[in-house]
Every structure is written in C-alpha cells, then in structure tokens.
Amino acid sequence: MLAWTVYLSFLGVLALMFVPGANVRGVRTIALLTALAGLVCAVAAAFGYDTKAGIQTVAKQPWIPALGISYFLAADGISLTLVLLTGIAAVVGILFSWNIEHRAKEFFAFYLALIGGVYGVFISFDLFLLFVFYELAIIPKYFLIAIWGSTNREYGAMKLVLYSFVGSALVLIGLIAAYVIAGLQTGTYTFDLLALAKVQFPEQFQYWAFPLVFVGFAVLAGLWPFHTWAPTGHVAAPTAASMLLAGVVMKLGAYGALRVAMTLFPLGLAAWRGEIAVLAVIGIVYGALVALVQRDFKFVIGYSSVSHMGFVLLGLMTLTTIGLSGAVLQMFSHGIIAGLLFAVVGRMVYDRTHTRELADLEPMGLNRAIPFAAVTFVIAGLASMGMPGFSGFIAELQVLIGAWQAFPTLAVLCGLGIIIGVAYTLRAIQKSFFSGNILEASIQRFNDSTIQRFSESASRPSNPTSTLETISIPERIGAAILIASTVIIGLYPTVLLNLIRSGFDSALMAPLVKGGPL
Q: Which secondary structure element, helix H or strand E, spans residue 500, and what is its range?
C-alpha cells in the first residue's frame, strides 16, 4: 500500500492531462482526491506497521541490472513518519490553494508531481532511485514559484533551484565514489543502501566523502551558511509551495543527511560532527536574530524556518537515542507548524490585504477584520515557540536533552535561540494583528491624500479592512487539520515516537546511536 503514495500522485498528474483547463472545479477535485488517497495510504501504512519488524520491503525489482540499480522501495519508522507528514501537507496545501484560477491545471499537476517525488525519496532504499526522486522534486518547485509566485519570483525560483542542483551535484559525486569503492572492495557494484551500509569504506575516503554528501543534502535543509535560498524561496513562492518548501522539501535534505551520509560514512561523521553541530547552532541563533528584525511578515517565518531546522541538524549530531528521535520528531513538528504559519501569512493575510509589510499591516486591526486568521496565527505562534501541549515542545526538548549530553555548551546557546524565538513570534503577532488604530491610520491617509484622491475614495467604507474576504471553508478545514496534528502529537507524542525509535533500532540505523536508550 505504501508504494501507492507515489503511484497515486503521478496518476493524478496523468488524470489532470485529460481535464479541460477551463474546468477549474474538476481540476481541484481531482487534485484533492489524489492527495486524500495518498494520505489514506500513508495513515494505513503507519498504523499498520509492526515496530519490531525493522525495515520492511515494499517493492524490489531489478531496474538496470548491469549497473546494480534496482527499484527498491522500503520503509521503517523514520520513513513512515515523514510519509505521514507529506500526506498531511499535500492535502492541506490543496485546501489553501482552492482560490487558484490562473492555469490551475498546470499548478496542480506540478504540485502533485512534487508530492510524488517527495514520497519517493522517503521510501527509496536504492540510492540511484532515491536520487532520481530527489531531482524530480526539484523541477516542479521552480515552475510553482516562477509562474505562480509573487515578490521576485523568478529570482527566488532560480536561486532555490541553483542551490538545490549544486547540493545534488555534491551528493552525486559522493554516491558515485561510494559505488565504485564498494564495488572494488566487494566485487559487486550496487546502489542498494542496505548493502553499501555493510561496506567498511577507507577512513581517508570517509573524511572527504561524508562532508560532501552531508552538506550536499543539508543545503536543502537550510544549513548555515548555505541557507540563503530558503527565506527568498519562501517569500517568492505561492502559499501552497511555501507550505511544501518548509513542510516537506526542507525535510528531504535532513532525511538524506541522516539516511545516506550518516549511515554510509560513520568515521567521517565522527570526525565532522562537532563542526556541523556548531553550524547548526549558528543557524538556530542567526535565523532567530534575523527574524526578529524583519519588516516583511513572510521573511519572519522564512528565517524562523532556518532557525527551527537548526534543531533538526543539531539533534542528528547528538548521536543519542533521545536526540536523534527528537530530530525526526522536529522534522514532523516543524513541517506542520511552519505550514500553518505560511498558510496564515500567505493565504489569509497577503491574498486579502496585498501587503506583507508589518508597518502596513499594523494599523489595519486585522484581529477584528479577520479574527479567524488572528486566532490561528496565535495558536501557530505558541506552537512555534515550543509551548507545552504542542508538538514543537516535546521535539525541541528531546533535541536539547540530547545536545546537553553531547555538547553542553552548544545546548546553552540553543536556549538563547529559543528565547529570541519567543521575542520574534510575539513581535510578529502584535504588529500583524493586535496593533491597529484605524482612526489614527485614517487621519494619516487623509493628510497624505490629494483632494482628488479624497473625492474618489469618499464613497468607500471608512474602514479599509471592512471589505476583506472572509476566511473560506477550505481554509478553515486546512487550519483545523494542522492545529489538530500539532496538538495530538504534543499531548500524545508516543503516537510517533514509537515509530521513530523503532527506526533507530534497525540494523541500518542502530550503529548511529551512541548514548543508548533514554
């Protein structure tokens, strides 16, 4: 059933080809049904998974036997957690794109192709196949941003793709080198991850192969100083694409770093983990500081994503059960919370007010004009700050405990990042929703207007936000799904932690854990 998450996504793209472009309702319906079917498959696979079974093969067939390439799909608890995240993000992204009218057919085709590529990465255990899906996920991102984006969309799309392709090139070099060296040692050339993980690569080779592959993947995870594509891409992207970028695409990089670089090159990991942990903490603090001074609402969320992804990378470097589990749980948690934040900023606020400047939003009194958006953003903000009762709290707590065991000084600096995170979140809440003084703003606009402008606007409502479109039903449903997800995991994290920890008990992942169970 798990393989159908991939097949259904691409079948959805195929089905859209036979729908007239003018039939926007039909296009939306097909896209939503496709995403829902994928989510059902993901939920069924996750809750039907035997946590004691280790890595379960989904499909394995020779693809290019002469090169040792196979169509090998498999899953463990780590994969299933991220597949479940992808299913939720896919459905919610479509609900928040229900207003798309311009070239809707192409939009949802690219959207489903991106989702199919993401699903494929998370369940591929042949490294060549994983790389193919990884590249398939990059191409639709460019078109989604360049065609349907907003501010500097061509620049944002190109920057994102260039960073992605440079990272992919580094990964490919490392994978080919591992393929050749393993073949020379064993006499069998293969891209099978399970087989390659058993190979003892030369120590000197691992010293340069590990940072090459890890950084190549981590570029997409927003590793400082290779993070600059992320805020620019988030701001330029349409709402659904922003949700996917922060929600699942950045997780591709973190997943690849964990699944490939850390398992194949353990000696390289041991040599470089301290340096990478430092970069992760710099990303946490730097991203939070830059978010604190942003004037663009969406840039605040974009840089906050860089900060929160730093917790993922730091958790990976702890090499303890609690730290690694926290890192994967943070991938899920950040995907849900960041998706909700971008949904409010992009769809509920920007599409209605046509501005993201906090100075422009401040006098609008949006807490009265669109109260549902205000309440939703407050909830998302609390979750992002790590408030107990939300998934972010338990995820970041585990990372901090693991970091304290491995890097005590860095753990203290992470605390600084959390404090700054509270500050920029509260600032964004206040300036965007709760600082409005409509009378004062009206007087200022009157003083700055010409007589002609005043005459033309005399018949308009005195409150500029009184005509804002109300929050639609699809948006309310999407927000409810995301809020429910973060609350359920926050109150009962065992739902996912049992899955995640079972993944680190497998023969492939168990050698990473140094601190033992906690």
A: helix 494-503
Residues facing residue 75 across a β-bridge: 56
Cα separation, 25 vs 45, whole angstroms: 30
459 part of a folded domain: no
**Which segments within 343-393 are labelled E, that is strand?**
none
pLDDT at residue 132 in the model:
92
User: Domain count of the chain?
Assistant: 1
For the stretch 12-60, pLDDT in tens is 999 998 888 788 888 999 999 999 999 999 999 888 888 787 888 888 8
SS3 296: strand
Write the burial class of residue 198 (CB in 10 Å: 0-12 exposed, 13-18 middle, 19+ buried): exposed
Contact 10, 113 (CB under 8 A): yes
Residue 297 lies in a domain: yes
**Could you count the other beta carbons within 10 Å of the beta carbon of residue 458?**
7
- Entry pTM: 0.88
Q: Read off the pLDDT of residues 451-468 as tens digits, 9 standing for 90 and up.
A: 344 444 444 444 445 577
Closest by Cα among 37, 451, 127, 81 to 251: 81
Half-sphere CA count of 118, side-chain side, radius 13 A: 35
Q: How far apart are CA 206 and CA 262, in angstroms?
A: 10
* 8 Å CB contact between 512 and 411: no
Residue matched to tokens 């065992």 = 494
Asked if residue 486 lies in contact with residue 298, where contact means CB atoms within 8 angstroms, the answer is no
Q: What angle do CA 201, 133, 311 make, to 5 degrees?
A: 70
pLDDT at 458: 40
Strand 56-64 to 69-75 pairing: antiparallel
Residue 216 and residue 176: Cα distance in Å, rounded? 14
Evaluate whether residue 454 is within a structural domain.
Answer: no
DSSP assignment letter at 270: H
- DSSP 8-state secondary structure symbol assigned to residue 64: E
Paired residues of 74 in beta bridges:
57
**Taking the CA of residue 143 as centre, how many other CA atoms within 13 Å lie in the half-sphere pointing to its CB?**
16
What DSSP designation does 470 have?
P
Please state, in angstroms and rounded to a whole number, the distance separating the CA atoms of residues 305 and 302: 5
Closest by CA position to 6, among listed 156, 116, 137, 149: 116
Q: Which amino acid is at 382?
A: L
In the structure encoding, which two tokens stand for residue 183, read together? Answer: 């073949």
In whole angstroms, give the CA distance from residue 477 to residue 41: 20
Both tokens assigned to 200 = 């003892």
Instruction: Name the stretches of the chain with pLDDT < 50.
Output: 438-464, 515-518
Of 376, 340, 372, 377, the residue nearest 358 (C-alpha): 377
Asked if residue 460 belongs to a domain, the reply is no
- R_g of the chain computed on alpha carbons: 23
- Look up the domain containing 297 and give its range: 3-449+469-513
In 3-state terms, what secondary structure has residue 472?
coil
Q: What single DSSP character describes residue 65?
A: G
